[in-house]
Specification:
The chain is mainly alpha-helical and 176 residues long. It is 68% helix and 6% strand. A two-stranded antiparallel ribbon has the order 1-2.
Amino acid sequence: MTVAEGEGAAAPGALPIDESLFFKLARVVNLTARPFTSGIGRTHGLALNEWRAMLVLASHPGVAATDVASISGLDKMTVSRALAALDRHGRLRKLRDAADARRTLLWLSPAGLKLMQRMAPMAREREDALLAGLNAPERTQLAVLLDQLAQQLLRADEQTEPLKAKQAKRRRAANA
């Protein structure tokens, strides 16, 4: 059997993933998360985005859901679902913000803290395995570069928000 001419060639206009920094970053995230989804999360009845929300709440107790989204980089709907699941399983504590009754502030409940304490060593082990091939200056440089990339993406998102709002307003007017 022979390969027809053109089969196996990259599609016209395809992004060269072997050279794409974006693809490489996504791959590292996926490889890092793989053991979680295949074992750790299943063992503890916890989805990956719930774990990510727990990490934020453990580091920043008393924040609102919008803060969890901002800190984690997850979209608001994903955070909402993750927080709802944490709440259903008794891993979340919520209180109305005394300064703004429209806001709810969030903490890990005692059960959430206990689960965090059980899972944190495994998370540290995975991070250590990821970074084992880097020396201290390389780790510092990587952290600085990742922070710069995140800030650049946040600035780009801020610039597109007014345009998205205008487009949504036009769609609503057209559907009215």
